[in-house]
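[Discussion] Sanity-checking designs against the backbone

I'm trying to build intuition for which residues belong where. Below is a structure token string of 686 positions. I'd appreciate it if someone posts a full sequence so I can compare it with mine line by line.
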């Protein structure tokens, strides 16, 4: 059973356990001894099942059961044992007799309250998991114990005027509540994390005053002074003024402004735009060129920046407000410069109020082609976005129709600019997935009848030779995105294509046109491609057996926390929300391993700025296909990803969930190189 299914099963069992204990107590208070006895038996079985589900889930890692083993199970076992010892014998005797005296006996607080108390304890465990979240600590444990004990005392007092030891029990409960509250709400003062060397323990560096400053620069400046390193501001880490020898200067101007855009259907949508269009103008360069982009803000009141998603620019060009620059206000401008060293498919977007800004249209594409190669065939860059409630490809809410002669090389550059994953299918031709996140795969095999799940922010490059029949790209198995028809055929929608042909994902059978799915066939039943098994292995500069200088673990969850100074049901990392998540501190040259664990029920596309990461494993299984160098990877519920990178791009970097609404609710932190500081004082706004 997969980890996410075990998580769902444990949730179901925990709710059933709490409901059974509570129902047994209510039935006892209602003078129904046989019903109460039956529910008592169900509660015992459910409690044992809860113990089993937690132990089974522990096989996936301590992260998934930490609060269950340290808080939820001890509360449940203690309260269940007490209920069994105090109420069980009386309840069973009353159920056998079922007379008036027995019905009156089970109503007694000595029977009903322990049963209800076990229900309160089981409910406290659920509250810890779903409202407080990971990790459990002594403070939250004491608070939950105090709340459960207070509920028991209140219930007993409501059922009887005499509660044995009420004053003493109330005093102990109050002390536990005060102590727990003190431990929970007094700041720990941790603002930076050095990480651990291989085989070592994490060294946590405490800096600052512990007041939970909301300014980007505090943690980074603190880490620099703590390490005693020579400092340099992030403003010194900028791109060059001139291109390398042989390179050209590619100059672009982007003006952010509000506008109403017209989609291909004629529908008008209010938007935030670059140069009055959504997506913004496509930026293209040749490897070795100097890209210079002048950003102006006409009327975006919240401000705007440019972040180069997946492109390892110098830190001062990264476009993170409050960290690498101030947001560009209305009437202001900022010039970005960087060398186009990486070939491939990328995109740009605002990083100020980015959840709203990107959703409203402040994004565009960046494509860098190899030096010395001539464009050939049909090359389409296809950003997919949800704008005004509809799925658009580029600026079209209708299928994009293109023609190509049979035998023409075709490349489709898919970019997911949304917050959630999209599923792509390509029907009508065998094809290869030749690049992921701008990096070529090694030995990509021929594909046919498969779905391609693309993480938010991620990119896939598909390549094929145009066949003599239509080819259809579909999004989420319901939206026709691109239809390519052969030039010799009708330029319309190709509706005459045959339906129902099957396909195989092997190279031999997929090359047979009879095995390729027709362009109008159904795709919902196609299995998803496992990228960790696709392509051919190749040597990598490091592996999971390498010695790592830094090891960081990020446990993703939900829980109540302060985010930007406001209490919220936040998306948390290691139990905290931005800006209170300790900064990860590295040295230039470090080999860094990052373990990302998803305890929650939502997918988190994880994105580290300024670095590509090599996937080491997913759920403990090593990559057996092509090496995967990614800048965004989808951490689905219950998954554990291990990735690594070489710290070779000094600066201050965001490390966050690229579901930007999750980032806005706290799921982001910083990675800082020793000695790098920032003069900026603005709080980042998602």
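Best answer:
Here's mine. Compare freely.
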């Amino acid at each position: 059973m997969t980890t996410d299914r075990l998580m769902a099963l444990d949730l179901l069992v925990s709710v059933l356990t709490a409901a059974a204990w509570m129902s047994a107590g209510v039935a006892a208070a209602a003078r129904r001894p046989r019903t109460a006895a039956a529910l008592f038996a169900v509660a015992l079985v459910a409690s044992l099942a809860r113990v089993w589900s937690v132990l089974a889930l522990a096989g996936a890692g301590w992260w998934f059961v930490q609060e269950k083993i340290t808080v939820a199970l001890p509360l449940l076992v203690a309260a269940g044992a007490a209920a069994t010892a105090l109420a069980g014998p009386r309840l069973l005797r009353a159920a056998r007799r079922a007379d008036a005296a027995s019905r009156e006996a089970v109503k007694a607080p000595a029977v009903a309250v322990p049963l209800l108390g076990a229900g309160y304890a089981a409910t406290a465990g659920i509250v810890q998991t779903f409202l407080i979240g990971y990790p459990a600590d002594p403070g939250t444990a004491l608070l939950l114990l105090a709340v459960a004990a207070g509920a028991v005392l209140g219930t007993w007092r409501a059922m009887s005027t005499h509660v044995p030891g009420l004053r003493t029990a109330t005093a102990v409960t109050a002390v536990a509540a005060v102590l727990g509250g003190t431990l929970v709400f007094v700041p720990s003062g941790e603002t930076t994390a050095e990480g651990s060397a291989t085989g070592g323990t994490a060294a946590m560096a405490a800096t600052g005053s512990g007041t939970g400053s909301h300014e980007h620069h505090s943690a980074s400046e603190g880490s620099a002074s703590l390490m005693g390193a020579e400092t340099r501001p992030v403003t010194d880490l900028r791109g060059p003024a001139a291109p390398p020898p042989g390179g050209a200067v590619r100059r672009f101007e982007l003006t952010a402004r509000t506008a109403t855009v017209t989609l291909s259907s004629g529908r008008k949508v209010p938007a935030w735009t670059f140069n009055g269009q959504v997506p913004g103008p496509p930026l293209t360069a040749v490897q070795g060129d100097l890209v210079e982009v002048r950003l102006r803000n006409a009327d975006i009141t919240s401000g705007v920046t440019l972040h180069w998603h997946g492109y390892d620019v110098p830190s001062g060009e990264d476009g993170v407000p409050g960290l690498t620059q101030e947001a560009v206000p209305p009437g202001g401008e900022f010039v970005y410069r960087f060398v186009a060293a990486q070939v491939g498919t990328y995109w740009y977007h605002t990083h100020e109020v980015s959840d709203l800004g990107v959703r409203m249209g402040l994004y565009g594409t960046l494509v860098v082609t190899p030096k010395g190669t001539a464009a050939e065939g049909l090359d389409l860059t296809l950003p997919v976005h949800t704008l005004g409630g509809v799925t658009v490809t580029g600026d079209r809410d209708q299928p994009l129709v293109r023609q190509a002669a049979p035998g023409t090389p075709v490349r489709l550059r898919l970019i997911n600019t949304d917050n959630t994953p999209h599923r792509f299918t390509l029907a009508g031709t065998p094809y290869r997935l030749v690049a992921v996140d701008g990096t070529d795969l090694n030995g990509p095999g021929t594909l046919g009848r498969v779905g391609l799940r693309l993480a938010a922010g991620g990119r896939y490059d598909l390549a094929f030779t145009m066949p003599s029949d239509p080819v259809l790209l579909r999004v989420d198995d319901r939206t026709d995105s691109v239809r390519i028809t052969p030039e010799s055929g009708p330029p319309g929608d190709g509706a005459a294509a045959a339906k129902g042909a099957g396909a195989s994902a092997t190279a031999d059978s997929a090359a047979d046109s009879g095995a390729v799915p027709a362009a109008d066939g159904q795709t919902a039943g196609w299995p998803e491609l496992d990228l960790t098994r696709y392509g051919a292995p190749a040597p990598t500069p490091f592996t999971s057996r390498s010695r790592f200088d830094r090891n960081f673990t990020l446990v993703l969850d939900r829980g109540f926390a302060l985010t930007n100074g406001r209490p919220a049901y936040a998306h948390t990392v290691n139990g905290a929300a931005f800006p209170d998540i300790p900064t990860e501190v590295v040295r230039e040259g470090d080999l860094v391993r990052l373990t990302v664990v998803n305890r929650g029920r939502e997918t988190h596309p994880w994105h580290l700025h300024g670095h590509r990461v090599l996937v080491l494993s997913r759920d403990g299984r090593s990559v057996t296909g092509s090496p995967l160098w990614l800048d965004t990877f989808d951490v689905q519920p219950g998954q554990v990803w291990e990735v690594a990178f070489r710290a070779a791009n000094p600066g201050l970097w965001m490390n966050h969930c690229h579901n930007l609404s999750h980032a806005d609710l706290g799921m982001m932190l910083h990675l800082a190189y020793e000695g790098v500081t920032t003069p900026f004082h603005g709080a980042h706004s998602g």
